[in-house]
Structures are given as structure tokens and as C-alpha cells.
Amino acid sequence: MTEQHDAPSWAAVFNDARNKSVQQQKTARLYIIASVLIVSAVLAILVPVGVQLSAQYSQAQIARATDKEAASLSAAQRRKELAAAHKYNAKLATSGQSVMGEVYDPFAKNGDSRSETDRQYQSLLNVAEGVMGTVSIPKISLKLPIYHGTSNAVLAQGAGHLYGTSLPVGGTSTNTVLTGHRGLPNALLFTRLDELGKGDTIYVQVLDRKLAYQVSRVVVVNPDQVKPWVTVRKQQDLLTLMTCTPYGVNTQRLLIIAKRTTLASTGDDSAWVHDWVASAVIISLAALLICLGILLRRLLNRTVVRRHLAPYVKHKG
């Protein structure tokens, strides 16, 4: 005798379809909420990065404009500016450098700007709107304008020349000190300076002169231990980069000490700055698009399922 099975009733089918539809709608809502949270998290990361990249690109543009402005000066004007800068450095080397920086520590938040009140200093190497020249570091895709002094306003825009140290024109018995912030939310500046190591090259361009310096030492000191490292050393041609460390804590100072070396051909440095910024922007946009793509795909899948079930649910109702 053949065993018979009861077929499910239409009511059971409709109820099951309705329950599945309700459950899928709830699941879809959860996916939407989760996707929105994911996209928001990605944007929270990408937006500050985008702001920093935009600032770095703008600073590189200012630096290149400064180089072009310097190139437009006559040969006689450039010689006059360089001669005045070398004379300033020679006097500085024999003075003992009793006055250095805006205050004792350029990253301190108090104290007046000594550099801004020194008219002679401000007039030297004033190529364009307070900009002396440019500093380029290929290893970290950095090109910044060099401004007079290290006031808060200056350090928010680019690299600041530490008042009381040698002007960035090179020569024996000179030590040019450039400072910059790390970890600003709206600009990279010297954020990646800790990636430099012995043997890396730094370029400084002032007027029509491009100088190359090779990193010889990396040191970390307390703020009250900085001065011996940033003073002139006889018969040496040095460049010192200074920033805060550890990242986000800023209780010490990171010093990158570099010695003058032979200038090698570097090509158009605007290329590597532009390429690095472009690559970072593309990667950031790709990450955002992937998240949006996942969100749209899940939403479309849920929409298709609901369309198939809708006639049954509507008929039952």
C-alpha cells in the first residue's frame, strides 16, 4: 500500500513566504546599517588623509613657484642676495649664537617671535612672501617651502628656518636648521621624517643654487639638549632637520643631521611628489568605491528577493 504524504496548504506556503519576506527585510536593514557604519568608518579615515595630501600638494606647488620666482631674478640680483647671506653666516659663526629660535624651544607654545622683529633677517633671501627657498626629500616624497623663522603661523605652512642658525646657502662653518611639525590633522609636513636613515639625501634650493646633503646621524634628545646639535661646527657644512617625537606625544626632539655632499642629478622633483600624491588619492578612492560597491550589491540582492516574494505576500493579504 502506497504511503501518502499531506501536501502543504496554500496558507502554509503564503505564511512561510510572508515570514521569509519579513525576515529578509530585517536582514536588509541590518546590512544597510552595517554598510553605512563601514562607509562612515572608511570616510573617517580617508577624509583626514585626503586633507593632508591636498595640503602637501599645495605646499609642493608653493615650493615650485618659489623656485621659478628665484629663477626669474637677474644674475646680479642673485649674486647680491647670496653674498649678503654668506656674510650673515660668517658673522653668525663667530658670534657664539647667543640668540637662537623664537624662544628656547621652537615648538613651545609661548614666547614672542624674535625673527619677525628682526628686519635684517627678514630681508635676507626673501625670494617670495617670506619664503627663502625649498627643501626636498625624495625618500618620503616631500617638497616644502622654507619660511623665515619658526612661529606657529610658519610651522603650519611649511618648514621653518630656525632663527639664529645659518641661512640655507651652504659653506664652511655653517649649520642650517629647518624645523617642521609632525602629526597635524591637516598637513603631513615632517610627519614621515622618522623614516630617514643614514645615507639618505636631502636637497635644499635657494635662488639658483641646489645643495645636496647626506644624512650622517639620527638622534633623539630632550628639548633642553637641542642647542649643542644645532650650533655651527667649525669647517663643517651641515643641515639639521628637527621635529617633535614620539609621534603624538611630542616630549622629545628628533634631529636628522646631514653633511654636504656632491649634487647628483635628481631630474624633475615635481614628478615624484605628484606621483605619490596621485597614487595615494587613487588608493583612497578605490577603497571607498569597494565599500560602496559591496553596499549596492547587497541592496540589489535583497531587492530582487523581495520582488519575487511580493505577489504571494500581496495575494495572501
Tell me about this structure:
This protein is α+β, with helices and mostly antiparallel strands and 317 residues long. It has one domain: Sortase, Chain: A (Beta Barrel), CATH 2.40.260.10. 47% of the residues lie in helices and 19% in strands. It is built from 7 helices and 8 strands, in the order H-H-H-H-E-E-H-E-E-E-E-H-E-E-H. Strand 5 and strand 6 form a beta hairpin. Helix 1 runs antiparallel to helix 7 (269-316). The mean pLDDT is 78.
Mean pLDDT: 78
- The number of helices is 7
Rounded to an integer in angstroms, the radius of gyration calculated over CA atoms is 30 Å
- Describe the biggest sheet? 8 strands, mixed, barrel
Q: Helicity, in percent?
A: 40-55%
CATH class assignment: Mainly Beta
Gap between N and C termini: 40 Å
Total domain count: 1
Element pattern in H and E: HHHHEEHEEEEHEEH
Q: What's the shape?
A: elongated
- Portion in beta strands: 15-25%
Question: Which residues form runs of ≥5 with pLDDT under 50?
Answer: none
Oligomer: single chain
Can you describe this structure in just a few lines?
With 317 residues, the protein is an alpha+beta fold. It contains 7 helices and 8 strands; from the N terminus they run ααααββαββββαββα. Helix 1 runs antiparallel to helix 7.
List strands and helices in order, with pairings.
Layout: H1 10-71, H2 75-95, H3 114-117, H4 119-123, E1 131-137, E2 142-148, H5 152-155, E3 159-161, E4 174-179, E5 201-206, E6 209-221, H6 227-230, E7 237-245, E8 252-261, H7 269-316
Parallel strand pairs: 2-3, 4-7
Antiparallel strand pairs: 1-2, 1-5, 3-4, 5-6, 6-8, 7-8
Helix pairs in contact: 1-7
